[in-house]
UniProtKB/TrEMBL annotation:
It holds the Pfam family Myb_DNA-binding. This is HTH myb-type domain-containing protein. GO terms for cellular component: nucleus. GO terms for biological process: regulation of primary metabolic process. Residues 1-37 form the HTH myb-type domain. It is found in: Nucleus. Its main location: nucleus. Keywords: Activator, DNA-binding, Nucleus, Repeat, Transcription, Transcription regulation. One of its GO terms (molecular function) is DNA binding.
Amino acid sequence: MEVYGEGRWHQVPIRAGLNRCRKSCRLRWLNYLKPSIKRGEFSDDEVDLIIRLHKLLGNR
């Protein structure tokens, strides 16, 4: 991704030798592999925001 960017998903499976479609590669990057994804527990501020939004919006 660092070399070719995030916009050329049709080249990823070809260059990496993967047996996946470009959509599958894109979704895997966005949901699991992207370095900016925050993992771990929620901070206190995030928990407060979730609770406030749930009180405001409820289950949708």
